[in-house]
Amino acid sequence: QKATALTLILVGLGTNLYFYTVHEGPMSHGYSFALITIFLYLVMRWYEEPSERRSIFLGLVFGLIVLVRPSNMIAGILFLGWGVSGLDSLKSRPGFLLRHFKYLLWMMFFFVILWIPQMLYWKAATGSLLYNSYGISGSKFFFGSPNILQLLFSFRKGWFIYTPVMLAATFGILFMGKRCKGGRMSISFLLVLQIYLLASWWSWWNGSSFGLRSCVDLYGVMALPLAALIDTSLRSRKIVRILSISVLGFFLCMNQFQTIQYTKGIIHPSEMTWEAYRLNFLKLNEMEETSK
Question: Model pTM?
Fold first, then answer.
């Protein structure tokens, strides 16, 4: 219970999910976060006992996930890989899905049903049943030269710089073996694919935003490895417990402080640099000018 409570606090207040619910709630990321978290819960329940009802809900929720943000289709990895923990379970997965093929049909049917109103609207407004609302720029990916280090560690928009709690959550994947063995492989693969896709997009920094807003969508998934790390720490020696909670508490405070800085214009929404970050570290006055 302690690990659960601390995880909820850290995800809710220690990440930029807080910013994209409190300050910029109309953006899609808070809704995608909720939908993917619900989807993960339904996946867990479905593998415990596949049923028609759970299949319908999975199809509806996954349809909403893709409709709200098409790139989040990769969340389907959670369904395909949940429970796979080794070579034997990987080999048996296709046979398991074939045995429950009727439930997969229910999922696909309700996935499509949910898209019909949107497709009719697109047809009426644009003359096409499918429409790329991002335009041409949204399709520009450079898969041969992803900006992975910049995406994770740059002061322009590094995920682990502006949301350091997620660095701890990523590290927590190593501790999922005993606590969530069936989810470690699918979560790891989903995270790697998400990082690669975001780093390959032409606008890897996500335009004007506080931190990497596209990563907010997966925070419900990343809560599991974060909880595994916290639970491991709480069961360790006293010095480890104190150190771990202190570091995570510092990460939470940094997120809240940097959120205030961003709302005051101290953290630039798209062109932050190391020099600007250093000069304005822990300051709440206006951003200082820096020479190029």
Answer: 0.92
